[in-house]
Design a protein that fits this description.
Number of strands: 8
CATH class of the largest domain: Mainly Alpha
Helix content: 55-70%
Length: about 450
Amino acid sequence: MMRREISPLNGRYADRLAELPAYFSEFALMQARCEVELAWLEALERAGLCPRLSDAEHARIDEARQSFSDADFARIVEIDRRIDHDVKACELFLREKLALDRPQWIHFGLTSADVSNLAYGILLARFRDQQQLPMLRALIECLADRVEAWKTVVFPARTHGQPASPTTLGKELAVFLARLLRQARTLESHRFRGKLTGATGTHAAAVAAFPDRDWMGLSAEFVESLGLEANRCTTQVEDHDALAEYFAIVSRTNNIVCDLDRDLWEYISRGDLIERPVGREVGSSTMPHKVNPIRFENSEGNVAISNALLHALCDKLTVSRMQRDLSDTTVERNIGVALAHSHLAIGQTLRGLERIDVDEDVLRSAVESTPEVLSEGYQTILRSAGVDDPYELLRRLTRGERVTLDRLHRFAEGLSVSDDVKARLRDLRPAEYVGQAESVCDGVLEDARRWLGP
């Protein structure tokens, strides 16, 4: 029977997101919850609280951790349907699976929120390290290659959509490279937080059973062993502030990617950049000539969905009624949806970038056709030469007027300034009026290569 998917993530785009179910599916969540339960059981044994497990029991724990199967997941789902509590279902499943002599030590001193927040922290940290950062790295590498190749390619700049002081194509892409690099570093250094503090954050049950133990220290040590930062002061739920901080990083990255998408789309539409046709791809159902910038458009759309969900996640997950309510659990299950759309967006931008070419002669001609952009350089040189109000002189000469190099040169000859200043004005050319664009590119590239490594 043909599958009918509700979400395009599992339908049209499934092949591009094939790795993500390992982090965001119900299967992955249940597996991570069992991983937390097993690790806590072993931590209790190491602390001398749980009686020593036999070699056979340790072997079954290792097997359960390493070979979580479809059948295991199906069994948890079956138990959950009966008792209507997914974390308790994991505990009962492990009781069956491990067949311990003392099964009461499974889930000892825990509340379901302890298990779930740690499971999400583990999964998100893995996704960040194994999928998200590598994808961002690929985009940064792609941008760096193009900044290097095009750092001296003169490019027609526009502010407010009107001709402005020229730049280089490499320098314009270097702006996005620098912005993405800052977010990548922030993402890389971000630490997800987790809590193991009991039903209302007091370790009350554990203290009641073993009053002489340092439960705050033991739980913090355990959380840190999972690669998370311990949140020692909580209600029943971890406050999710670190998740909100993470989502903000992703959202900022999305916005930078979207900004890049829109600029590249505009450059292609004006003919400043060329998008290469590929194979038998079709750009229109009726117009055979079309080569559309659909990857940048697709990326922009996915950013919109991702950011809408990320903002909703930030707003909801950082608020909980008193010690807790259950509204966060269904919201958390959409974390993967938000991040998957972000992943799609970056992948589409990367694919679009890889298909862009430039015609340097066309770009140079476009820049040289607007000599009025030299009015900035003219009035600035004249300021330095002591002319009182050169801005007003250039405004009257150029604003709303057709400007040519010859007209600018005649203007320069009529000024009461030295021959050296006149020569500097005459030497200005639009295609060479790019300042230190190449040096700007080199500085960003050096920074990027340092982060990218060998």
